[in-house]
Amino acid sequence: MTDPTNQFDLTDDQREIQELARRFTADRITPNAAEWDEKHIFPRNVIKEAAELGFAAIYVSEESGGINLGRLEAALIMEAMAYGCPSTSAFISIHNMASWMMDAFGSQTVKDKYLPSLVTMDRLASYCLTEPSSGSDASALKTRAVKDGDDWIVNGSKQFISGAGENEVYVVMVRTGEEGPKGISCLVIEKDMPGVSFGANERKLGWHSQPTRQVTFQDVRVPGENLVGELGQGFRIAMTGLDGGRLNIGACSLGGAQRCLDEAIRYTKDRQQFGKPIADFQNTQFTLADMATELEAARMLLYAAATKVTANAPDKTRFAAMAKRLATDTGSAVVDRALQLHGGYGYLMDYPIERFWRDLRVHSILEGTNQVMRMIVGRDLVRG
Asked: Where does the Acyl-CoA dehydrogenase/oxidase N-terminal domain lie (predicted)?
């Protein structure tokens, strides 16, 4: 008989994976993250080291060179790495999402062509859905691919693309047919294909350790074999990928918020005011208690949603949306209170809190805004 007190515990294997990611973060990410942020350094060498642990292909099949783990294990890895740097962890999540799309939906030709170098991170991959005029309404995208013999000719642009200009491979949603979601397909486009160009690196509030640019396609000739999935299947592929992406970005918020809670506990125990540590004041303890409780609740929902996505449960999309909304809102709220507990020092770059405050703010926007998450959940509830 199963011990009921252990039903929500991680397995030994999951704890081992979590510990591996934590050690990697402590050794290679946390000591360098402040410099990456301040100097806008893209740490490609450290990101590539993550591939040696299998973290470039977490849920890619073993046949394609991945480690074939579930979405809960992926969330544990992202959460652990975000403890050091949410921006870097989120970048690795995006690469994983692009690689998984090729493995899950691509032909053997696509897999053979791209996955070996993506699994090792000799090449890095971006996910391209958002456009200058279509963000939340992703099915209104305008980037068009027209058949020319065996090839596709692609014209259009994508906005807010993580890794743009640095990454070699782009998984791009394009319009190949009618308006709306049924006319969208998925193509793999390479950085050095003639007609691919990039805008200036965006000047962002946070996420300074990764480049973000616009990608423009001008008469780009893409081989027909680079189609991922069937014609017209692109929107479904994009949305399926976002279920996992939302879990990962939620996990990045949890990891960053946990770091800030730990920093706040340490700081309030050391900081003296009115003759005693501010951790001794009941108001401080109540604030810390709420931060820890809310963080734990968000974590439990995210882990539950991750198991549903792995199992392909009927309500997986609703749970992924609920978990993403709660984890990212909670993460930002926890970090904000951690900054307040630090007082004026929390506003200084000498302490890590302000970096996490900036990095986590965008998590309520990307992978679908938290308003769209509410739409997804509400629509699913009323439709039964």
From this structure: 11-121
12-120 and 235-382 share one fold:
no
Exposed, middle or buried, 280 (CB in 10 Å: 0-12/13-18/19+)?
middle
Q: In this predicted model, what pLDDT tens digit does every residue of 299-324 receive, in sequence order?
A: 999 999 999 999 999 999 999 999 99
Encoded tokens for 368: 């679908």
> Looking at residues 10-38, what average pLDDT do you find?
97
Per-domain residue ranges of the chain: 12-120, 125-230, 235-382
Mean pLDDT of 97-121: 98
What CA–CA distance (Å, rounded) separates 144 from 185?
Answer: 10
The CATH class that applies to domain 12-120 reads mainly alpha
The answer for 339, left when phi > 0, alpha when psi is -120 to 50, beta otherwise, is alpha
Residue 258: is its pLDDT beyond 80?
yes
What CATH superfamily classification does 125-230 receive? Butyryl-CoA Dehydrogenase, subunit A, domain 2 (2.40.110.10)
Max Cα–Cα distance, the chain, nearest Å: 80
Q: Which tens digit of pLDDT belongs to each residue from 39-98?
A: 999 999 999 999 999 999 999 999 999 999 999 999 999 999 999 999 999 999 999 999
Averaged pLDDT for residues 360-367 = 97
CB burial readout 84-110, b (16+ within 10 A) else e? bbbbbbbbbbbbbbbbbbbbbbbeeeb
Its CATH class, for the domain covering 235-382, is mainly alpha
Count of C-beta atoms within a 10 Å radius of residue 286:
10
CB burial readout 158-181, b (16+ within 10 A) else e: bbbbbbbbbbbbbbbbbbbeeeeb
Question: Sign of the C-alpha dihedral, residues 346, 349, 350, 354?
Answer: positive
